Amino acid sequence: MEVKTSLLDNMIGVGDMVLLEPLSEDSFIENLRNRFDHNEIYTYIGSVVISMNPYRSLPIFNPDKVEEYRNRNFYELSPHIYALADEAYRSLRDQDKDQCILITGESGAGKTEASKLVMSYVAAVCGKGQEVNKVKEQLLQSNPVLEAFGNAKTVRNDNSSRFGKYMDIEFDFKGDPLGGVISNYLLEKSRVVKQPRGERNFHVFYQLLSGASDDTLKKLKLDRDFSKYNYLSLDSAAVNGLDDAANFRTVKNAMQIVGFMEDEVQSVLELVAAVLKLGNIEFKPESRCNGTDESRIKDKNVTCVYLQAYYARDALAKNLYSRLFSWLVTRINESIKVTRHKVMGVLDIYGFEIFEENSFEQFIINYCNEKLQQIFIELTLREEQEEYIREGIEWTNIEYFNNAIICDLIENHQSGILAMLDEECLRPGTVTDETFLDKLNTICAEHQHFESRLSKNSKYITDHSLPHTCFRIQHYAGKVLYRAEGFVDKNNDLLYRDLSQAMYKANHSLIKQLFPEGNPAKVNLKRPPTAGFQFKASVGTLMRNLQTKNPNYIRCIKPNDKKASHIFTDSLVCHQVRYLGLMENVRVRRAGYAFRQAYEPCLERYKMLCKRTWPHWSGPAREGVEVLMADLKVPAEEFSYGRSKIFIRNPRSLFFLEERRRQCLQNLATLIQKIYRGWKCRTHFLLLKKSQIVVSAWYRRYQQKKYKKIKSATTVVQSYTRGWQVRREYRKFFRANAGKKIYDFTIQRIMQKYFLGLKSTLPSMSPIDKSWPARPYLFLDGVHTELRTVFHHWRCKKYRSQFTEEKKAVYEEKLEASEIFKDKKALYPSSVSQPFRGDYLEISKNPKYQKLNSAMEEKVLLADVVNKINRANGKGTARIFLLTKNSVVLADQKTGQVKASVPLPDLTSVSVSTQSDGFFALKLKEGSASAIKGDFLLSSEHLIEIITKLHRTGATAADSEQLNIDISDEFLVQFKHDKVCVKFIQGAPKNGNSVSCKRKNNRLLEVSVPTTA
Length: 1013
Ligand SMILES: Nc1ncnc2c1ncn2[C@@H]1O[C@H](COP(=O)(O)OP(=O)(O)O)[C@@H](O)[C@H]1O
Ligand SMILES: [Mg+2]
What we know:
Elements: H1 25-37, E1 42-45, E2 48-52, H2 63-69, H3 81-95, E3 99-104, H4 111-125, H5 130-150, E4 151-152, E5 160-161, E6 164-171, E7 177-185, H6 190-193, H7 203-211, H8 214-220, H9 244-258, H10 262-278, E8 283-287, E9 293-297, E10 303-305, H11 306-336, E11 342-348, H12 360-391, H13 404-411, H14 417-426, H15 433-443, E12 450-451, E13 470-475, E14 478-483, H16 487-492, H17 497-504, H18 509-514, H19 531-547, E15 550-557, H20 570-579, H21 582-591, E16 595-598, H22 599-606, H23 621-632, E17 639-641, E18 645-648, H24 651-730, H25 735-761, H26 781-801, H27 805-821, H28 828-832, H29 850-855, E19 862-869, E20 876-883, E21 887-892, E22 898-903, E23 907-912, E24 919-924, E25 936-939, H30 943-956, E26 964-967, E27 970-974, E28 979-987, E29 996-1001, E30 1004-1010
Helix pairs in contact: 3-4, 4-5, 5-7, 5-9, 5-11, 7-9, 10-11, 12-13, 12-19, 14-15, 22-23, 27-30
């Protein structure tokens, strides 16, 4: 079986005595010595720790070590008190089992130190936090206070506990300390008044005197000098390695931490001082006439029997001190007490004591140790064997010494030493230590463990080591000789009623509190219980308390009597090993099984080691465990199946199981981790996947959007292209035309409006009406003007259309006249309004002109009277002027005789002036017949009409050329032979309105024409 173990590997000697081979007392001691020499002060017997006092500090009590042992298996590391503390703490915390740690051993073996180590370990590993730390501090600091008042230097131990102490540390469900309760057992109060040689009074006296300030001492009325006080032994006042002054400060500080008020500390110190001073009271014997000795306090008037006076003084001092001590414990409990949850008890009770002179105190202390041994036997040896029987495990009984018989000798109700002592104390009549011893000699004579010179049993009659005033008891740890002297007194522990009443009357509140029986109102005539009785009762309570808890043992052994390191006294160790019953312990362990456990928790603990039992076993637990063991192939001799428990013989096997379990737990942790990681990864993966889907969805959407964009862009491009194509094709129908259409429409509309507007605003139909509506638009300018013209033409046409042919002819003539003369001849405007009558002479009607008329071949177109101008004088001769279609005729006015007839074609031109005169010259064609007489210079009032008609007729004549009309103010006229110039001038106003023609010379005729206004 290859198992890695620290307990068993690299061991000095053997760490667990159970594994010692061969097992003998010698090898046992040798193993202890071997380990002690190598600084291995702890050794196991199964789960019991043997602790050797090293008498020096070893580097194995430090925080690193605490960490090393924390949460480790008991058998995993080399033996240590921490391993035991850890085991106890964990089983308290995790399995809810109340624990007690029983520390036994004789005085100076290291019990108190061990108890402190356990407490400090628990304080280190349990929870932390402000509140928890405060509780821890209070629990730990209760130690220095109690040690100052309850410890003293003895020959065996410089810091010997002179009281028994049992401390319950209380924890909450998670293992954090909540508080505690301290029980104290029988303070050795006789030490207050008297100390054996080489020993000291309680530490506190020395601490107070060395450590207190001068001021405090003055207040307490104390002197620093130890020698001034009777109660302080002088021979060992200073102890090596003990700094009383420093310790005093520690104690005061501790008191403060525990929760003592300032005035409480003061009161306590006052009481300590009172005790000291009480010791200095001296009495002076005075003989009285009645023959008795009386005494009085020096200088004071108090009297009593002399010897009794000292006795009473000491009794008072002892009582005062022991009551103070009990009060201290109660006070500390007040600070740290809480309601009970889980409890770990630490018992540090005074060890077995054998002094040169042993008295009532030793008797009591050793009785207590007997009881503890008893409980050890009960729980480890007897209980173990009985368990095997109960469980039906094959078992050969191991012999061991059962000290029940000694306990019986001491505590038996009827014949026990304590019972007899009480009986003596209560008995009326003279009671002395001698009468008590006599009684013992009678009643206990036959007891195997009782030895006395004068007992009925004459066995010891010659034993000179046994003085007559003593008796001897064979304790489990050795024989002890007790002096009977003082037993009765100490058991009575009486205080004179006067004293307690006096104390009650004190002004000091603490003193008053300590002596409640002094209250006169509560006078109790019943005797108070004896010291022995009280002790027996409290030990009984303690034992019952311990029995309800899971015990953990630390068995302390002192290696030498010299309080020296490195010395290992075989005989001394051997003695302790024997009386502690360690050999038996090992034997029982070896014969039996190192470990046992009920099937259910065992299966629960190891079921993961086998596939069939993991994770659930459905059958009975025992079968499960069997399957498990078979599966693990643990050798059959290594374990046995009891009725309700499995017994494992060897720690190795247990450790094998533990180791496998540890590995398995690691695997399980890995499995959990694996599944968790798988789950975590998967969750993460799923999350990623989900995210990826979201991302890709978005991406696709984005892509699609992009595609859609492209698509829509394409569509746009396409639509533009198509649009472009279509437009190209249909442009003619669309864009260009639309505008034009609209334009046209608009224009049309405008035009329509314009025309309609125009229609309603047209001017009158009179051709001479010059008015015309305003043009609405600039662009209509042309049209507007055009329309005006058109309109004008139209109305002219209309106007014209009303004309008859005659009228038309008249107008045609007028028109022609205008064409010829307008703006050329000043006479013209005056002619416009005068109608062309043509025949002014009424030639066809007037009989005067009948002949003439008939002479005319053609119809006369014009008949008028004109003046024929003479070349000679410029005077005119009246002549009738006729115009026919073919010719011009000039006839005499009076006769009507034709003077000249000129065919029209012979006329070449007509000359007229530009002025308003009626002169005109008819020029004849040269060479024609008519021309012989020369041209005609005529004047007429109807010049315009004459010329016009002449022009018209000439134009219509078939063979005539166009008649020239020559308009100028100077023209030549061909008279018969010569040409005469006719010149027109602007006439002077003196000539009046008439035109005058004068011959200037042969060649010039001057016509003066009046100016027209
Ligand atoms: N583990 C230890 N390491 C060092 N010194 C120790 C140890 N245990 C005890 N001692 C020494 O032995 C002395 C007596 O121990 P203590 O515990 O007071 O004995 P007990 O309480 O059994 O009478 C202590 O003052 C100390 O000097
Ligand atoms: Mg002690």
